[in-house]
Amino acid sequence: MKKLLLSFGAVVLLAAGAQAQTSYGLKAGVNLGKYSSVPSAFEDMEKNNLSFYVTGYADIPVASQFSIQPGVSLQGKGAKYEGESANANGKLTQNVMSIEVPVNAVYYIPAGAGNVFLGAGPYVGFNISGKQKASGDWSEIFEGSAERDLSFSGDDKDMNLIDAGVNFLGGYKFNNGFLINAGYGLGLSNLNPNDGDKISNRVLSFGVGFQF
User: Residue ranges of the Outer membrane protein beta-barrel domain (predicted)?
Assistant: First the structure.
C-alpha cells in the first residue's frame, strides 16, 4: 500500500509539473490551397486558392527541447482554376472551410534570440461549409447560376465530410513568445464522393503567432 501511495504521489507531482510547464499559443495566416488531382485539360489553369487559417494550440513538453502540440484550427482550403483551355474559358473557385484537429510533435533547436522549431503530425478535419463560384464557360455547369453552396452529406453530396492527413511545420519562436511559421498540409483521405480520381487537399501556409 505504501508503495502504491508513493507511486500515485509521484504521478500527481509529475502531472502537476507538466501542467505548470504547458504553454498555449495562437497562430493565424494565409493558406494557398490546391487539390492533388486535376483533369489534364485544366492543368494549365490551376492556381493557388488564397484563404486563411486560425489555430489555437497547447505546447506540452515531454522531453528536453521536444513537445507535443494538440490544437483546434479553422482552415480555409479549396482550389482555383482560371484562364483558357480547349475545354473552358473563365474562372472556377471552390472555397471550403474546415474545423481541424491536429496533434503535432515539435522539436526546438536553440538559435540566437529564440528557437528554430520543426514538427509534424496527423490531423483530422470536418468540412463545415463550402461554395463554388464560376464565371465564363464554367458557369454553364451551374445552369446559369454564378455560385452555389457545396453539400457534405446525402446521396448527392459534392464532397466527403471528413478530411484527414499529415501536417508538416517549421519556423522560429523568439524568447518573448512571438513566432513566425510555415507549414504544409498533405491530405490523405479521398474528398471525392463519386467514382473517379482520388482528390485530396494540398495546402501551403504562412503565418505569425504568439505562445504564452
Answer: 19-191
Q: How many CB atoms lie within 10 A of CB 24?
A: 12
* CATH code of the domain containing 206: 2.40.160.20
3-state SS of 108-172 is EEEECCEEEEEEEEEEEEEEEEEEEEEEEHHHHHHCCCCEEECCCCCCCCCCCCEEEEEEEEEEE
Domain count, the chain: 1
Geometric angle at alpha carbon 178, from 172 and 179, rounded to 5°: 30
- pTM exceeds cut of 0.90: no
pLDDT tens profile 163-204: 999 999 999 999 999 999 999 999 999 999 988 889 999 999
Identify the CA nearest to 57 among candidates 17, 99, 27: 27
3 falls within a domain: no
Q: Is 38 helix (H, G, I), strand (E, B) or coil?
A: coil
Dist. CA 122–CA 167, nearest whole Å = 6
